[in-house]
């Protein structure tokens, strides 16, 4: 049984059950979020950072059953760092950046996901989803702007042009909530999506996989390992990941014809593990599951006043750690836009860019995970022949190693051509993140050590390279300035950062005058060699949906 | 196999979008039966060989490709 102690969070009788407020009306909520998995609490916290109150409903009263989404990517850790909980995840989890791919029992391909130094967070931290949710819940329960309600199940949703009313079932009965916006973060079997009878088109895959989480006592590998046809499981593939608490995840590909009930039996799981780890190894079972998967995506993530995020809006195969991390990126993209719309500083049409950008991201994730899936589980003989030839050539030929696809691991997706980003005018960029791509981190000094990501706040930030403070452009209202300079004090509205190792300059191709406009979700909205005040204002207008 | 250190056959990646090219090749076989696959691959190899042009490179590739005969499942 699991080494994790599942806490049952307290259910509290909602005040709505005791009648409307003194003024005779029930209180209207700016945002109601359905589902407290990875996306829901992250959204609630990202809204709270911007002063927006939310009600977060969950039908259950505890964290994720099973380890589920275990690979927490750098971009997600950066998001959670804004709530002060990423360090806790890094400390508890297993940092890994390298992986090994085997054919039969021979390593054929080694990869390093973080070839450059100087990032605050590693490429990945492996941490069971129940821990991530626990840390998120702890933080939400401390936050006055978040009303987290356990054992509150949504049973009816009635949207209209101005908002949504929803019926919620509790152990004490039903009540109704009124909200300006409803965000469904309620997972692949989204109740909200079902209640609204919205389609979820996509592709079903029939290959079955067995996950066995085991607590292991021998020396554990830190890197990801993937085997094609190992001698301990000669007909298929096996994936191995280490997690916190000396837990290993072993993922056996079983094929289409396996009997899931048979495979799940502990004695059968043990037999497979014994073949893998040999006669002397010892372990205890944590969790097992036989799964198949689908790749699906909704046609629109914004349906009037109802918004979908995470698995409720799109699902992918698990190869590449693109489920949980995409869910976090969704709500990171959504939170600042929704906060602006609620504050009246941006029109509701800004939310269209959430739909467009995150649908493009979901498409990229589905494409990548489908390609990995097709490589790992070829669907027809020619596909298998090419796959096996690639593996065989990979021993001798570096090019073939690059084609071996055991999962292209999640990096921030590219969202090119978004209507709220400003197309580049200058064309002499040698490197650096273009509009529509995520910013890159680098070490900086600001009194004490730190990282560039620490200085990009919940609003828009201009990163400007300048020899002297006097050369900086004038900042429009609503934009914070970060000045990357050798020395010198920053003018009002600016933070001065020293480029400790010269890596900011290098990674951004920064010259005197160069400026990058960074969105609140740490994506680049625009960049210039020497912007004037009018260009900055226009880019900000456009990025906030007023252009 | 050919001596790769001195040979003319490129060993390192030369595709800008490798996953895209790989999947385009797979997709091109999707609706073909075994005989059709063989015919299709024959045509593809001849087209690409002509494009490569260099007989030494092609000769090396013909030797190296024999490695592919040992890539699959040992049990199946």
Describe this structure in words.
The complex is a heterodimer of chains A (547) and B (76). Chain A is of the alpha+beta class. Chain A has three domains: 26-94 and 118-197 and 297-348, FAD/NAD(P)-binding domain, CATH 3.50.50.60; 204-294, Alpha-Beta Plaits; 443-543, Glutaredoxin. Chain A is built from 13 helices and 28 strands. In chain A, strands 1, 2, 8, 9, 10, 11, 19 and 20 form an eight-stranded mixed beta sheet that branches. Chain A has a seven-stranded mixed beta sheet with strand order 6-5-14-15-16-13-17, with helices on both faces. A five-stranded mixed beta sheet of chain A has the order 26-25-24-27-28. In chain A, helix 1 (39-49) packs parallel to helix 4 (129-141) and helix 8 (324-343) packs antiparallel against helix 9 (350-376). The longest helix of chain A is centred in the middle third of the chain and has 27 residues, at 350-376. Chain A is globular and about 70 Å long. Chain A starts with 27 loop residues before the first strand and ends with a helix. The model of chain A has no long low-confidence stretch (mean pLDDT 93). Chain B is mostly helical. Chain B has a domain at 32-67. Chain B has helices at 18-28, 34-52, 55-64. Chain B is globular. Chains A and B meet through helix 9, helix 10 and helix 11 of A and helix 1 of B.
In short:
The complex is a heterodimer of chains A (547) and B (76). Chain A is an alpha+beta fold and 547 residues long. Chain A contains 13 helices and 28 strands.
Secondary structure layout:
The complex is a heterodimer of chains A (547) and B (76).
Chain A: E1 28-34, H1 39-49, E2 54-58, E3 71-73, H2 74-81, H3 86-92, E4 94-96, E5 98-103, E6 106-112, E7 124-126, H4 129-141, E8 146-150, E9 153-159, E10 164-170, E11 173-184, H5 191-195, E12 202-204, E13 208-216, E14 224-228, E15 237-243, E16 247-255, H6 260-264, H7 266-277, E17 283-291, E18 294-297, E19 302-303, E20 306-308, E21 314-315, H8 324-343, H9 350-376, H10 381-394, H11 398-403, E22 443-446, E23 448-451, E24 460-465, E25 479-484, E26 494-497, H12 503-508, E27 515-518, E28 524-528, H13 533-543
Parallel strand pairs in A: 1-2, 1-11, 2-8, 5-14, 11-20, 24-25, 25-26
Antiparallel strand pairs in A: 3-7, 4-7, 5-6, 9-10, 10-11, 12-18, 13-16, 13-17, 14-15, 15-16, 18-21, 19-20, 22-23, 24-27, 27-28
Helix pairs in contact in A: 1-4, 1-8, 2-3, 8-9
Chain B: H1 18-28, H2 34-52, H3 55-64
């Amino acid at each position: 049984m699991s080494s994790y102690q599942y806490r049952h969070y307290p259910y509290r009788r909602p005040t709505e059950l005791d009648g409307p407020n003194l003024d005779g009306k029930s209180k209207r909520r700016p945002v109601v979020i359905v589902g407290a998995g990875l996306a829901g609490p992250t959204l609630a916290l990202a809204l709270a950072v911007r002063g927006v109150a939310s009600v977060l409903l969950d039908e259950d009263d505890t964290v994720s059953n099973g380890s589920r989404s275990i690979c927490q990517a750098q971009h997600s850790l950066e998001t959670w760092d804004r709530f002060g909980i990423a360090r806790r995840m890094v400390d508890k989890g297993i940092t890994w950046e390298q992986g090994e791919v085997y054919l039969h029992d021979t390593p054929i391909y080694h990869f390093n996901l973080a070839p450059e130094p100087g990032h605050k967070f590693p490429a990945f931290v492996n941490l069971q989803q129940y821990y991530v949710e626990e840390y998120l819940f702890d933080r939400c329960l401390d936050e006055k702007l978040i009303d987290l309600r356990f054992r509150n199940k949504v049973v009816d949703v009635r949207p209209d042009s101005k908002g949504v009313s929803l019926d919620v079932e509790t152990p004490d009965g039903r009540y109704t909530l009124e909200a300006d916006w409803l965000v469904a973060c309620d997972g692949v079997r989204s109740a909200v999506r079902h209640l609204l009878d919205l389609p979820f088109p996509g592709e079903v895959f029939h290959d079955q996989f067995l996950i066995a989480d085991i607590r292991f006592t021998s020396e554990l590998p830190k890197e990801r390992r993937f085997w094609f046809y190992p001698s301990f499981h000669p007909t298929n593939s096996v994936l191995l990941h280490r997690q916190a608490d000396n837990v290993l995840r072993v993922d056996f590909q079983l094929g289409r014809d396996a009997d899931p009930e048979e495979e799940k039996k502990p004695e059968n799981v043990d037999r497979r593990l014994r073949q893998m780890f040999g006669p002397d190894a010892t372990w205890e079972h944590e969790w097992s599951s036989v799964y198949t998967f689908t790749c699906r995506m909704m046609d629109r993530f914004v349906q009037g006043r109802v918004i979908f995020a995470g698995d409720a809006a799109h699902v992918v195969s698990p190869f590449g750690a693109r489920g949980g991390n995409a869910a976090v990126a969704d709500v990171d993209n959504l939170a600042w836009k929704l906060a602006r719309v609620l504050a009246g500083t941006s029109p509701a049409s800004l939310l269209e860019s959430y739909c467009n950008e995150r649908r493009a991201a979901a498409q990229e994730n589905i494409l990548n995970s489908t390609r990995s899936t097709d490589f790992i589980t070829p669907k027809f003989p020619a596909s298998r022949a090419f796959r096996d030839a690639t593996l065989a050539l990979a021993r001798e030929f570096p090019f073939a190693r690059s084609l071996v696809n055991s999962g292209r691991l999640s990096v921030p997706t590219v969202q090119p051509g978004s209507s709220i980003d400003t197309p580049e005018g200058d064309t002499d960029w040698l490197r650096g993140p273009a509009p529509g791509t995520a910013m890159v981190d680098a070490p900086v000094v600001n009194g004490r050590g730190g990282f560039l990501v620490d200085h990009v706040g919940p609003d828009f930030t201009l990163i400007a390279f300048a020899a002297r403070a006097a050369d900086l452009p004038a900042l429009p209202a609503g934009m914070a300035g970060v000045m990357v300079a050798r020395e010198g004090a920053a003018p009002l509205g600016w933070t001065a950062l020293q480029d400790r190792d010269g890596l900011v300059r290098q990674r951004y191709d920064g010259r005197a005058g160069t400026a990058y406009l960074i969105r609140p979700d740490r994506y680049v909205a625009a960049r210039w060699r020497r912007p004037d005040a009018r260009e900055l204002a226009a880019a900000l207008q456009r990025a906030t949906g007023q252009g | 196999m050919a001596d790769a250190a001195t040979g003319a056959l490129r060993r390192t990646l030369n595709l800008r979008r490798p996953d895209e090219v790989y999947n385009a090749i797979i997709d091109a076989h999707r609706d073909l039966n075994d005989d059709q696959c063989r015919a299709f691959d024959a045509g593809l190899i001849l087209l690409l060989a002509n494009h490569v042009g260099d007989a030494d490179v092609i000769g090396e590739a013909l030797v190296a490709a024999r490695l592919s005969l040992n890539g699959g499942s040992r049990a199946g």
